[in-house]
Structures are given as C-alpha cells and as structure tokens.
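Take a look at the protein record below and tell me what you see:
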Amino acid sequence: MNIYRNLTVAVFALATLGFQAMAQTFTGIINDENGAPMEFATVALCTLPDTSAVTGTVTDIDGKFEMTGQGDLIQVSMIGYRTTVLPVSSYSDGLVIRMRQDSQMLEEAVVSASLPKTELKGDAVVTNIAGSVLQHSGNALDVLGKIPGMISKDGNLEVIGRGAPLYYINGRKVTDNSDLRNLMSEDIKSIDVVSNPGAAYGGEVRAVVRIRTIKHQGDGFSFALTSQARQHLYNCKDFEPSWSVLDLNYRKKGWDFFGKLVYWNQRGYQISDIYGGTVVAKDYGIKTNVQEGDLDYRGHNGGFQYVAGANWQINDDHSLGAKVELSDNNIGNSRLIMDDDVFTDGVKIDHVYAVNDSNDPTNRNWSGNLYYDGNIQKLHINFNADFVSGRNDRSTVVNETSWATPAYIESGSVSKTDMGAGKLILSHPIWKGTLQAGAEETYVYGGQVYNITKIEIPSSDFNIRENTVAGFLEYGFGLPFGQISAGIRYEHVNYDYMDNLDSRNNLNRVQNNWFPSFSFSAKAGQVGFNLGYTGKTVRPRYSQLTSEITYDNRFTYQTGDPKMLNEIQRTLSLNVNWKFLTFTGMYENVQNSFYQKAYPWNDDGVAMIQYANVKDPLNKLCFYLNASPTIGVWHPNYTIGIEQQFFKTAVIDPRVEGGTRNIDLDAPMYLVQANNAFRFKHGWVLEADYQYVSPFNQLIAEIEKPMHNLSMAVGKSFLKNDALNFRLTFSDILNRNVIYFRTDYGNCFVRQSNDRFSPCIQLQISYRFNSADSKYKGTGAGQSAKNRM
C-alpha cells in the first residue's frame, strides 16, 4: 500500500504548486451583445509597440478565459464581431467584455456558412456543424460519419487509425450510444476529433471525440424523443421499432432533475458458406478432416435502460450531481443451424445437421456515478466515483443429428462482475499554461461458473480480482505560433486469477507501466499541423481471460487464456490541414498484440482455438486524405486512405518439417469513402454515400474480396427551431457489403462468406421540446474496466 500512498501524495503535491514570477494571470468572461456567453472567442495578450502576441487562449462554453503572461494589451476577436482591445492597466478581476457585431463581416460569414469549416486547434481536428450543410444530417451518429478524421468500418464509427473513440458532450462522458442517438445535428455546434489523447484520458483511451452543443437556457420542463423503425429486405419480413430514446429534464433555480428511458429491439441475420477443418499427424501420415456446408443464423436482442439523476449548479464555481442506471436486457436468444458434409482425406464420411439454441434469460447491470466539479480560486477540482454490478446467465443447447455419432450437448454459465472506481483531477495555471494532475483507482471482482454435458470438455469455476492504481501529470501552454503539451501516466495493476476447481492454475501478476504523451500544434498562414506521440495499453476483455471451453463443431472448440498480457501501443501521428483538405498519417508499434491461435486438442483431429499474445511486435501504418469543399448546395466529403499491418507469427502445422511454419500477413487495406450531402430550401436534405474497401489482412485473417456499400437518405425539418425531424434511410442498396474471409491457423483452417442481410430501410423521427443542455459534468471513473465487462 506504500506505493498507493506515495503516488497520491506526490500527485496532489505537484497539482497544488504555486508559481511565483513576474507573470500575471488574467481571467474574464466574453459575452455577445445580448449578454450570452461566447464560446471559441480568441483572447490574446500582446506587447507594444508591435502588438505581437505573447500568449493566447480561447473561451470555453461559458465564455470564460484564463491566461498567464506579461503584456500591454488584451485583444479579443471573433468572426462576425469587431475586435476589442483594452490596455492591461485597465484590467481588474472578474473582467466582462461585451462584443459588438460587425455587419459587413457578419454578412460574409452568413454567405460562407454552408461550409462546415474544418481546422486544427491544439490536439484536435475541429469541424463546425452549426450553420453548415451538416446541421440537418440526423442525429449525432449520422453527423459523425461525415466529418474529417472519422470513418465507418463495418457499420461502426472509428477515428482514423485509432479505432472506436471515447465520446464527450460538453465535457460529460458519454456512457452509451443512446446519448448520441438523441442528440440531433441541429443542436451540435462543433465536433473535435482527437487521435492522440493525452495522459489525462487514461492508458487505454486511443481516441477521443468532443462534441459541443449550441447553448440553450431550457428552464422548466423539457424533453427529447427519438425513435427508429427498420425493415430488413431479402428474406426478412419484420418491420418494427428498433430503438427509442426519451430524455426528460426539469430545471429550477440551479437544480436539474433528469431521467432517460431507452428501448431497443434488434434482430440479426446471417447466412454463410463455410469450408473448414483440421489436420493431424497419424502413424500412417497426415489426416485431414473437412466440414463443408451452410450456416443460418437468427438472433434477437432487446430490453430497456432506465436512468435517473439530479444535478445542483450551486454557483458558477461549484456543481455536483449523481445518477443511477439500470440496463435490463430481457430478450437475448439466437438460433444457429449448420447443414454440413464431413470428409476425411477427401472421402465423405458423414452428414451433420446441427441446431444451436442460445438463451440469455438474465442480463442485468446496475451502475451509478457521483461527481463534484468546482473551482477554489485558481485551482480546478473534478472528482468522480462510479460503481457497476452485473449478472449474466446463459444456456445453450446443441442438437446434432448425423449418420454416425449424433450428439446432444447442454451448457450453462452464470457470470457476475462488480466494479468500484474513483478519480480525482486537479488543474492549476502555472507560468504560461496549465498543469493537470490526477489519480484514479479501480477495483474489479468477477467470477463465472460454467457447466457442460460433453464429457471431454471440462467445466470451469473461477474468480478474477483486479486492482488498478494510476496517476498522471500533464502540462500544456500556448505560444505565439502554436501550442505544446506533454504528459506522463503511471499505472500499477495487481491481477489475481483463482481457479476454484484446480488451485494449480491460480495466477498472480503485477504490472507497472509508464505511458508518455506529447503534442505540438502550430499554424503558418492557412496551414495548420499537429504532431503527437502517445503510449497506450489495451487490457484483455474479461471474456478473453476465461477458461471456459465452448463447442463450435465436432472439429473445433474455443477458449480464452487467464495468463494473457496487456497490449502495449506506441503511436506517432501527424495531422495537417489546409483550407478544406485534411491529411492524417500514423505509425504504431504494438507489443503483445491479441490474436487467436490453434493447437491440437486430441488425437482425433479436434483443434482448440485460443486467445493469446503475439510474440513478435506488430507494426502498423496508415495514411488518409480528406477533402470537404462546398459547391453550391452540394457538400462532398471524400476520404481516401491506406492502412497496412506487418504481422508475422508461427503456427503449428504437422504437414511441414519441424511441425511449425511462419506466416507473414501484410496485405494493405485501401479505402474510398464518398459522402455527398445536398442542402435545399425549407429544411430538406438529400444524402448519397458510397464506401469501397479492398481485400486486406487483419491480424491472422485475410479478407479475400472487396466490399461495397451504397446508402441514401432524405431528411426534413419542421416547426420552430427545427424541433421536429424526419429521416428516411436506405442502407446497403447494392447488397455488396458481404464479407469473404479465410483464416490459416496452421493445423486448423476456415474459409467463410458472411451475408448479414444488411440492406434495410430505416425511418427515424425526432421531436424536441424546450431543449435544455445537460449541466451534468460527471466524467466517470473506471471506464476501461466497464468496457472490458
């Protein structure tokens, strides 16, 4: 425990350091003509006689600014407003500056407002949404797929080269997609895409997206409702609501009482052609087993989420709040049918018809957050405490009929996980910038009991205990030509695995890691660039650490590995922006990368596929170029890019001398994404989006055929302030988003095509009444552990 105590004392001591020098700290508020706070106004400290800038900053969502330095003049500027200059000698604490509109500049700004201007600001690629063609693009998820720095992969949004991001709305961490589904594009002011987040964001956060909304007063009662219904095409007959989100808020005298109800009803479909099997060494030579046929999958998942909470804005410097959430997944079932022929050494020996029914009767998670956010003079304090408690019950029945050896296999599992976490972040202005320091502790306790009736597959009963203590320091300051920030994060992880059936498998492991980060941003004329370096980690999901063995078919089983190590990632990135062009380049080195390997399970040719760490380093490169001009009513957003991995490993293969062989997989992925938006009068928007993805390698898998995706959408806004919105989307019109892949495990191989019937028509309706910004400032703690759960 000494390490925890020493770490906490050191972090807090550094965070509260004062800085005694000749420099002066300036604070104030910038308002518009009506007295409303102005976000993103530029405030600079200048010297005489040449009025050169010594330091500068931009105002936050409340119009507040803070900067430290020595100078003679304070200069405030904003597009569409007259520049305001006042001498430092007239400065006083609590300064409030009211800007005046410049009619000529305002007219010019209105003319160019159809362009979602993208530029580099500090560590982020920032796209302005308000007043642009993207202002009427549906909800936040629809908008995010159309901005520079973001791409869609297999229907999921990713930051280029960095994977799925962590989302923030006005500084509040987004805990699930329902917040993004119910945030309409008309309420979004701007979006920041951060591809190299610093030490404050945590060792596993690879990318961050910060969304800022248009400020609303919203006193009294307000609500927002968004619903979507979906009709699948091609052999799928359902037409039913797929999800709905209802947000409620009541605001009175600094108090907010809020609630949320989320309903989801998702169906999944897939038909596959599969050719797979195993090879095993025998006394007479190599025996090859092959199972070839069709797979038909149908899944249904549904439930409700309930959120309730309160927020108290005590004054401009202090706020606190709490919320609790219940996620109740009360529908979770699937049926998988396999109709296969079985061959041994090219001779058909059997025909198998297998029905796999899976049911999750209980999948319930409770979670909660408590936060405080405030200022004591110049010291900013943010504290969060979180808890999560979840349970999942699953039962599976496999009924195989065959010529030779029919089988009836039952299995069941009960999983429980509890998490508690606390995080404290302190920030204080020092010299020309701000020092941030923080500490975070997360405790996770989980377990699983698994039973199966197939004799040769063992049951399992285990517990996992993990305690993570982290501390970080980060300092950033502005220069006349740019901005520099650097940070360091330390994480100490104590991991225990306890096998309740065989104590010989027990494991204790302690890991200590340092994760540095650095960012330098500058601007020369119309060219802006950002150079960044980060060290990050990825910890195995708890499902990858399980010792549970699942039955795929008579030739393959799957399991995890409690001994898996954490991935360590080191990334160097470069972003360059000029007018409507944005370039992103990235190099990444990964140690202990996760993948699946195979090894012989028995002498009959059954192979075990297991999660493991790659022994050799995995290197990745990616380069992307985005163009987002505006041509009349047409706003194209085109992205071209290449991603390439350099993956090598050894696989077990009895067909070669020595029993192992090396494989190298480095086929690059080429991507073309062409998003087209047309904005017409009376709130009409038409969109046509196309994406092409070439064949490529992804870890040990090979994508063998290109994928195409063509989608179209039409939207219309009604009522005052665009309160009512309709959006009709036709996804994957060509039905060409089919995945063809093969995997070479050495002694085990599979080639498969997955058609998920993705063509569908979606109708989305949204209505907002008396829109109110959430004043809840809880950022959460233990996010990494939540994701793994």
In short: The chain has a mean pLDDT of 85. The radius of gyration is 28 Å.
